[in-house]
Amino acid sequence: MDPIADLSPLRAALLLAAPILLLLAAARAATAGTPEAGWRAASAAALLALLASIGSLAWLATGGPGLWRGPALFGDAGGLHFSLRGDFLTSVMLVLVSFIGWVIVGYSRSYLGGQRGQPRYVRSLMLTLAAVTLLVMTNNLLVLVLAWIGTSLALHALLTFFDERPQALIAAHKKFIASRVADLAMLGAIALVGTQLGTLEIDQALAAAQALPALPGALQAAAVLFVIGALVKCAQLPVHGWLIQVMEAPTPVSALLHAGVVNLGGFVLIRLGSLIGDVPMAQALLVVVGGITAVVAAATMMTRISIKVSLAWSTCAQMGFMLMQCGLGLYELALLHIVAHSLYKAHAFLTSGTAVETHRLQQMTPALPPLSGFAWFASALVGVGIVGAAALAWGIRPADAPALWAVTAVLALAVVPLLAGPVLRAGGAWVLAGIGASFAVALAYFGLHLAFKVGLGAPEAPAAAGLVGWVIACFVLLFAVQGAVRARPQGAVARRLYPWLFAGLYLDELFTRLTFRLWPARLPAKPAAPQPLLPEVPTPGAAR
Predict the structure, then answer these.
(1) H/E stretch holding 320
(2) Count of alpha carbons within 13 Å of 345, Cβ hemisphere only?
C-alpha cells in the first residue's frame, strides 16, 4: 500500500468543520429558549457543513489524498489517535452525508411544526449527523467504532421520538439489541487487530497486514468479526425486522436511517477492503448472507401494499446486494451503490405522500393483462445482450473480471421489467427507445464503475468461482419467481408463496420472541379507560 501524504492543517480544519458545526448546533438546540432558534442553528450548521464537505472534495481533486495524524491520547504505542483521512472515499461519503443531512433538516423543520419535543429532536439529529461525519473521516479504528456507537445511540432517541407509540418503541428496542451485538463484534475485532499489529491506525494496520506472508488466525477472526458487525448493522436476515418496523418513527428519521445510517456497514467494509478480501470465510459470509437477504427481501417486497413498508424491504434487499458486492471484491461498485441508493431512498421517503397519490392513480387505471413467460424470457435475453454490449464497450472482458460479470448478469435481469412492461406493450418505436435507454443506463453504470475504481484505488480481491456462481444462481431464482408470479398472479406458485413471503419467512417473529425473552422492552402504560357518565337514578323514597 502506497504511503499517503500529510494533510495541511488548513485542510484538516476544513474536514473537521462538518462535525464541529453539527455539534455546536446540537448544543444550541439544547440551550435555545425556543424551538425556532434551534432550527435556525441546525439549518445554518447543515448548510455550512455541506459547503465545507464540497470544499474538501474540491481540495482532494487538486491536492490528492492525505492524512492528518493528531496526538496520541493514550500514549504513543497505538491506541486512540485523533487522526483524519482525506481521500476519495472520505470526500464522497462526507458530501453525501452532509447533503442528505441538509435536506432532512429542512424537511424536518416543517414536518414537525407544532410537535412537542422539537429541541430534543434537533439535538439528536445534529448529534447523529456529527457522529456519522466523524466516522467517515477518521483514520483510527477505535474512533471509528466509538463514532458508530454514538451514531446508534443518538439515532435511538430519534426512533423513539413518538414515545407513546408501542410499535415504535418495540422496533427501536430490537435495533438497540442488535446494534449492541454488532458493537461487541467490532470491539472484539479491533482488539485482535491492536494486539496482532500493534496499531489501530487504519492505514498502518492495513499496510502491516499486507506485509505479512500469511494472515494469522487472529486477524482472520478479526475480519470475520468486522463482517458480522456490518451484517447486523445493515439489517441482514434474520435480524432485519427492526428496519421494517421503524416506520412508526417520523418520516425524516426513516429517510435518515434508510438513506444514510444503514449504509455505514458497507463503508466500513470498503475502508477495510484489503483485510476483508484476504479472508475467504469473510468473503463467503458476505456473499451468502447478502445474497439470501437480497432475494428474500426483494420477493417479500412484491407482497406489500404500504408504500413505506415496501421501501423498507427494498432497503433490506439493497443492503444485501451492496454487501454481496463487497464480498465479491467489487468495492468501487459497492461505493457507487451506496451513493445511488442513498439519494434514491431519501427522495423516495421524503416524497412518500406523492407516491401514495401516484399509487392511487395507478389503481384507478385499468389493469393490463399479464405478460407471458415467453415475453419475460425473451426480454431477459435482450437484457443480457444490452448489458453485455455496454460492458464490452468499456473494454470489460469476462475473463478479466468474473465477479464483475456476475453483477452484470444481475443488472441484465434488472432491466427486464422495463423491456417486458410498458415498452413491449407499446410496440413500434417505443421498443427501440426502451432498448436504447437500457443501453444508456448500462453504459453509464460501467463508466461510473471505472471512475470510482480510479478514485478509490480499490484493491484487487478476486472472488472464488463458487461465490460467483452463488450470486448468479440467487438472482436467476429471484427472476424466475418474479416472472412466474407476474405472469400468473393467481396461479398455484403465487398462492403457495404469498403467505410465506408476506410474513418474511417468519424470521422476524423468531428474533422478536428471542429478544423479548432475553430483554423485554419497556412500553408505555396504557391510559385508564374513561368511565362512562351514567345518569343519576333517583333512589326510591328520595325527596322530590
Answers:
(1) helix 307-327
(2) 30
195-224 pLDDT tens trace? 999 999 999 999 999 999 999 999 999 999
What are the backbone dihedrals phi and psi of residue 365, each rounded to the nearest 5 degrees, phi first? -85, 150
DSSP 70-116: --BBTBSSSS-B--EEESHHHHHHHHHHHHHHHHHHHHHHHHTTT-T
Instruction: Answer yes or no: are the C-beta atoms of 497 and 485 closer than 8 Å.
Output: yes
Show the cell assigned to 499.
Answer: 403467505
Model pTM score: 0.90
**pLDDT given for residue 528 in this prediction:** 47
Q: ω into residue 238 within 30 of 0, thus cis?
A: yes
Burial of 106 per CB tally in 10 Å (0-12, 13-18, 19+): middle
Q: Dihedral through CA 214, CA 185, CA 258, CA 102, nearest 10?
A: -90
**Span 482-539, pLDDT tens digits:** 777 877 778 887 888 888 888 788 888 888 888 888 888 777 766 544 555 445 445 5
Q: What are phi and psi of 66, to 5 degrees?
A: -165, 170
